[in-house]
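Help wanted!
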Amino acid sequence: MLTLREKYYDFDQISSKVFKCRRDDQFFTMKIVSILNEENQANNGVPYWIIREISILKELDHINIVRLIDVMTDGPDLFLVFEYLDNEFQADFLKNPKMFMYPQMKKEFLYQILNTVAYLHARKILLRDLRPENILVNVRTQVLKIALFGAARTFEAPLEAYSSSVGCLSYRSPEVLFQFGCEKYSTPNDVWAVGCIFGEMLLHRPLFSGPSDVELLDEIFTLLGTPTEETWPGVTSICGTCALMGPPQQPKDLAKEFPMLNPDGLDLLSKMLCLCPNYRISAEDAVKHPYFKGV
Amino acid sequence: MDKVNRVCAKDEERPLRITRARARALRGITPYSRPSLKNEQKNVLRAHPKRAASSENKTSVVVPAVVQQKGRAVLSDVSNMCAKPHDKCTKSSKFQAKGVYTKKTTKLAALGVSTEVSSTQENVRAKLAEELSTIRMVESKDTIREGVTADTALSMQNSLKSDELQSSPNKDIHMIWEKLGASDSLTIVDIDSELKDSQVWSSYAPDIYSNIQVTELQRKPVANYMDKLQKDINPTMRGILVDWLVEVSEEYKLVPDTLYLTVNLIDRYLSTRLIQKQRLQLLGVTCMLIASKYEEICAPRVEEFCFITDNTYSKEEVLKMEREVLDLVHFQLSVPTIKTFLRRFIQAAQSSYKAPCVELEFLANYLAELALVECNFFQFLPSLVAASAVFLAKWTLNESEHPWNPTLEHYTKYKASELKTVVLALQDLQLNTKGSSLNAVPEKYKQQKFNCVANLSPKPVQSLFQDKV
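Answered by r_m:
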């Protein structure tokens, strides 16, 4: 079996733990994962998130997902070899000023995100931490890649309980923010995150940015209205306490909040940001939405 | 390959248009045949179980004039009576199923199924077909996504809400139909529309299960590794290890998936790597550590796994073995296990009950865990073991009725006859015919929280598989 140095060569450091390397005239990106802690102790072995990330990435083959090529071991370190993305691929894609040049481009990227999420869900995978920082974009070729699957995991139906403290706060769905006995979340959680990204694409700022769960929920309800038993059956039992709900608020008119969106776009956004997870549109159905006609 | 290449209907045959009158004549009984896997990939159609009833001019649907049907596995007398006192599960009527598919009964007599229908039931059906104009034939595009094409299935669906049903003038007919069992054994229920989160799940379930049925073939341990490879260990030792791991998973309250993945990892390791018997327990705890990290919200720490072995192995040894196992299985932990399929198949089995039958779930899980301990079972695909566990669980709870039905055949993709070997082997484990002393699984399922299902024992299931001449 070939060692790391025999298999890959011409190492070029990109950042402290990331290298560019090559094999047979092909470039790759190598990410080093150290299993040792600061005191050089193998604390608890291979971290659970690495086990999940590698295991999940091994199952995937999609143009919009950064491809894991190889996993190698060398001493206490793991070396993850990914497809190489050139400098044109910019991380944190919403910070790219060229992103907002053409309205059609936003639609194209949103379509690619939803298409990827639908692909993952059909393979029993929840992303759980979908946010702009984890999305790389090549504006010239208009190709988008989702990276970082550390928070991802497989899911079951009927739903099992999963950790409710995953993902960036701003993109967490209401069902995850309602932590009272609501660890059973599923694919709609990812669709909510896509809805937040869609809103951010349009407004050029995060759609919700509360610093805590309660404040974030308040922001969500300010825009979308406070959920009721009619709009979200069982919500009162989920949230456990009315303190989280705050005073009842009426939903705002999304057409006024997003004047740049046509009726189809507004319909899609409202369906992705539906408070009740069971009524929220699936990624698979979202891809087929009339908003994407012509994409 | 017969299963894969089954032909549902000839493509070139001219379709026949079904009018309301013809539908009445058919009394809602339409062809059902399990689709081929090839078709399944092509015909990914979505079910719309909650769509409003179509208007008069939209009720016709295209079906083939001739449908080829293969002989199904022999069935014993099908009745809807529950014989056993512990069978608390009552049958559901056709009207409680959200998406229902019906099966042609022409060859049932030849298959040993009683086709006698009382005149009352015949009248009720005729009257229903006549008067319940709200029952519609779902167009071919609305047939279930999991490969049931327009050629192979017609869907009958009641568009009335249950409250409308209660106030309808045909209420008595509904009640009689319900009492008669509504030929429940001849229907395929759309199980995904039954879930609380049906919008979420139903759009993905068919894709997911067609994907994992491919994956299970790729991640299978070598069937006879004990004979071919291992020299220092034997099936008994493996059984003792898994039996102990069942206790460990109970002690640490691990999710069932962790146990199943643990055993999968053990078998995959033992399929390719020679091991000495003094390191077998090390392999067991290491595989459970890996499986816990993958499946659990909060996995036990390495130290705890060392502790449960009475510190026979050091932390360093466990961590070294962890890397070895992960390298060997190439970090491929997304494997379909018996439990993965069991969830789905239990859901399909529950569709024939009015209320979920907890005994069925406990009993199927019990039988599946018995199979985990037994070395001979990893030669079978996880889906086959899961289907067989459901078959035997249903039989154990109700011996008056054949446990298999079109819904289960559709979702498991197994005919009853294909389950014979595994069902018989499972029943041997259930009855402990070999007098095994490994009792972690039976002890676990003798607990009240599992309704003491380990105490149940059925009549021999062999009779269900005997061919009738």
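OP: Thanks! One thing I noticed: The beta strands of chain B are 15-18, 61-64, 100-102, 135-138, 155-158, 187-189.
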